[in-house]
Fold:
Amino acid sequence: MTHKERRLTDAELAGYQTETEAVQSPMDDNRRVRALIRQQSDLNAGYPRLLRNLEAYRNISFSEVVVDTVPVQLMCNQTRLQSLTSETFEKTANRKSQACFLCHLDIGQRGVSIMDENFFVLTNPGITFPGDLTIAATVHQPQMIVGHFSEMIRIARLLTDFSIFFNGALAGASSPHLHFQAGFKNMLIGETQIQSLLAGEKVGDARLDPIIRQPEIDVFSIENYLRTSYLIYATSEQTLVTFFNHFINAFVMVSRQIVRNPNVPDFGSYIDSLKMTESEPRMNLMLKFDPESGKYLLAIFPKRFNRPSCYFRNDDQKLVLGMAIKEALGNVITGNQNDYHRLIDRPELIAKAYSDTSITEEMARDLNDRLRTFSGESHG
Structure:
């Protein structure tokens, strides 16, 4: 069935609104998506795989672990196992026989269209927190942010209850089909830590280092935060887009240093699942829009790869971890109890997973120097 045939109409969603929402008119995309989450979670009419995973989610384990002064939320979560073990960008075997799960939807999976039917919003059955979403392009196209960042901004402006996420092809994405993710705002520990840092509050030894201070945009790096991280606070959409293009160009130059690392593809390699040579740098993104202040908050986590060295071990020291946007935002997820307890007992393994996958300190210094040349003027 096509996305259009799987689309829930406003009439179908009407019964899944709260009383407060029901008296508001007309229905907007925020309300449509909240109603979608309730409909797909309905025990009688919902999405069967999501319902099974919601039941399994009742048994997940959470622990807060302090890693080099910074709190991290560790989660043992079987519902995320498919994403954790995804080999979409790692192996070529049987690739031609694999159907795209964002083109050919699961049994009972339904969604809502946004942005003139260019994107289709679905509930994500791999649950970090209930209400997680996948926002897939309705036409199959490569998982790349270049050329699509303005669409990410538009999605953030439509779905203001949600944080919008993006994983690059070699930075944790589990599908080669262009898609974003989303979740209710401030559910991830890193989101609340970012808000604390911006408010001048302490988060372990982490601190903000200003890189750019201009009337329409502030750019900070977060130091002593386990992974290289950037925060961009902007009042102008155009300035945000211009800076993001500047960031991409700078990070492409820095990424040329990603060569001859064990188990890590050299930057610029051929990506079989995209049928193209890698051209954009590896990163995880979070974007949110505050309709009250009119400000955007963009977090960028530049990466070397999404797999830490422990993933490639063939002994009892192997850990199945994929360091994507949820991990970048402090929620480290594993699929089995043994790994979960080892990470609780040995926080240094979490620190190593971050350092293995983030860009190096030398690369970060190079990137910072290049970012500081930003003038705020559009060059195309």
Q: What stands out?
A: Residues 251 and 281 are 6 Å apart (CA to CA). The longest helix spans residues 237-255. The chain has a mean pLDDT of 94. The radius of gyration is 20 Å.
